[in-house]
Each structure stands twice: as structure tokens, then as C-alpha cells.
Amino acid sequence: MFKGFYTAASxxxxxxxxxxxxxxxxxxxxxxxxxEDQTSVRAFPEMLLNSYESEKIPVEKSFNISKLRSVxxxxxxxxxxxxxxxxxxxxxxxxxxxxxxxxxxxxxxxDAESGEPGTVLFMVESANGTLYTRNGNFTLxxxxxxxxxxxxxxxxxxxxxxxxxxxxxxVTPEGYISEDGQQVARLGVAFSSSPQGELIKEGEGxxxxxxxxxxxxxxxxxxxxxxxxxxxxxxxxxxxxxxxELMTAYRTFEANQKIIQAYDKSMxxxxxxxxxx
Length: 277
What we know:
By secondary structure, the chain is an alpha+beta fold. It is 23% helix and 33% strand. A five-stranded antiparallel β-sheet has the order 14-7-8-16-15.
């Protein structure tokens, strides 16, 4: 009977974590460049139950032997295995601000293991190495450097900071930055062939590579994309779908809760009523 407690409790824990993840997605539905997390719920390995029975052998000097009888399999519960970010393209919103830039996916190679396409990302300088982001809501700091909204420097294709004289600059679809008719730099854009497996969230729309550094998207074969100035990529969270999944998670949590309450009543009777007999 206690196995039922553990199975239902594991279901409640899994749905509680799933609810937290979906709530976070919903809270970031309007966050520029945010990529929603998707849940992966898995079952614990099933256990095969067997029972030992005694069987009498009909011989002259009869004796009993133990016999193994298969009862069947029993499930031991579920768990939230991992949260996998979806790098699907979000809607592009026009802002008309020259410092806002959006990456528009073109043809991207499909990862053989996950079956999902790769992704391209802007390169960002940090104290612990290069970080990556899809959030193109940039600005210029007091020294004229192109930075993220949180003040981290955007890098060019040579991994150098990009310094500009004013916001009156242009960016071509190929990433070339020009000011006063002169080419200043080219935006640093990296390519990840398997973003779900090799990128780790750092917060504020930033990702780091799980070891090493991503290759340049400009130099990677079969990778095509464009950069749109005066626009940003919005979150790829589908609010309606997320709300539906949130209600499903809540109902599943509630169902497991009622199972535990039923077990609790059964145990109460077993202890307080049957135990008196």
C-alpha cells in the first residue's frame, strides 16, 4: 500500500515542478528574445513482481518445492527529467530604433540526434568568456559601445567591442555596420548546431556554451540568416497553449492529491478499526 503513496507523491512533485516552469514561461511571454522551456516527464523503471508458492510433488515420498509465479509489473512513479528550451523563431516586432536588431532564421542544418534545427545568436562579452543571446534590444553606453540592456558589450566577428559615434548607423541584412558611409564592423553571430544540448541558460536571455566556443555563423556551411535593423524578436511563448498546459498540470496534481487522501483514509481504518479486532 505504501507504494501507492510514493507513486502518487512523485506525480504531485513532477506536476508542481512543471507548473513552476510553465508559470515562468507565461511570465516571460513579453520578454524580448525569450525562449520557452519545454518539460520532459518520464516514468521510473517498472518493477516485476513475483511470488513464491509451495507445490507438492505427487511421488512415493512426497515433498514440497518452491515455485516462482509471476504477478506482473508495477509502476513506481514519474519525475520531471529535464527542461529543454525551444529555439523556434519568435515573431518579429518593428520598433524603428536603430539599436534594435533581430535575427531572422533562414536555412539552418538539422541536428541528427534531436531532429531540431540549429540556431544563430549574437555574441556577448562577459568576464567568464563569450556568452550568446537572441535578445537584440541593444543600446549605446556613455562611451558609444553597443551593449545589451544590462550593459554587457556586443562583439563583432573578430570578438572585439563595437564602438559607434551615435545612433545614426545602419546594419545590413548580412551584419555589416556602417556609419557616415564608412563600414565600421560586422556583428558577431555564432551558430549552434544543437542548442538544446550544448547551451546553458545564464539568465537575462543569455546562454553559455557547455565547454568550448561556438563557430561563426558566417563561416558555417549551409547556414543562412538575415539581420533586421529597427526590430526585435519577441518571445516564442504561446500564451494560450501555455495556459492550457498549466490547467492540465493543475488537474493532474489535484488527481494525485485525491489518491493520497484515499490512501490516507484506508490507512486510518487499517490502524484504528481493523487493528482493534
